[in-house]
Amino acid sequence: MSYEYELTILMPCLNEAETLETCIKKAQTFLRENNVNGEVLIADNGSTDGSREIAVKAGARVVPIEQRGYGAALIGGCEAAKGEYVIMGDADDSYDFLNLMPFLSKLREGYDLVMGNRFKGGIAKGAMPPLHRYIGNPVLSFIGRLFYKSDIRDFHCGLRGYKRESIMKLGLQTIGMEYASEMVVKATLYKLKITEVPTTLSPDGRSRAPHLRSFHDGWRHLKFLLMHSPSWLFLYPGIFFTALGAVLMCILAANTITIGAVGFDINTLLYSSAMLMIGVNLILFNAFTRTYARMTGFIPMPETPKKRFFTVDKGIFIGAVLFILGLVLTIMALVGWNSRNFGQLDPQQMMRLTIPAVTFMVTGVQVLFGSFFIGILEIKHK
Questions:
Q1: Which CATH architecture has domain 5-227?
Q2: Which of 10, 28, 127, 190 could serve as a FRET partner for 285 with CA atoms 20 to 30 Å apart?
């Protein structure tokens, strides 16, 4: 592809009249002093304070973005950018637009995404709320590294550079603040070349409160990280609950467990049964999500190998076997009841048979029809 500029410095804008001109002038100074062929692009998200006029007067190009949201502004700005590379940053004067060369140098070396790291570069006093600095950002960045095997230490830095063509191919879609996570997650999943450079963060120059809503936007980031990692959302918890429930059921179905003065009997057996069924449900949800992802491409999944550990036919067979096993145990319970002339039974003895029976029957039905549903998801259609 041919580009009019080497670099587009992109700033999302929603009523940033107080700081916008300062940011534009700094970006222009960087381009001029470093002999970079570039443009300053303002993605205006519906400003009503004269920000558009200020930007045009300062010499920036303005593209109006009708759909509201941080992500929507940046997606529209990226589409309108005329540079081979894009460096995006907030227009609140908190990021250093005079010192963008570390980002551009890495892009010139061939990196697809260059993240800023504010914790390495330095966070000025009052630039980041303590809740964000010591809990929000570190925790969400840790989860991102854990879920996606990423080396990025600052998932939510708003100053970052990228190769426009590479990021456009990712098809980023989130329109809110979680756009910051989506870019890193999908770039990691699609194995783009990513690195990180130190950058600074200063207190923003606005007199009004920032657009960021701590808990609301933090939850949206966390939800995005979970929804794009079916293993951590469904599979690993599912394996834990299934294994723990199955072990406890096997032990308690045989006899009561006494630890010190505490006895674990049929009530604990019932909860173990529920734990096992919850675990199987979560494992099935993982299978549903992975099949859907493979068929639609919403997250990259390897092509289906010729030989798989789990197939629809195997799932149907396993589900049927479990259901029959539960049915057999139910018949055994009925035979035992018949031997008492359908009279009063000892709950402690009978429920050691009926709870596993019901568990196997319910689990068998879940696996059997869940396997059919996976088969439906795998049907290719126009």
A1: Alpha-Beta Complex (3.90)
A2: 190
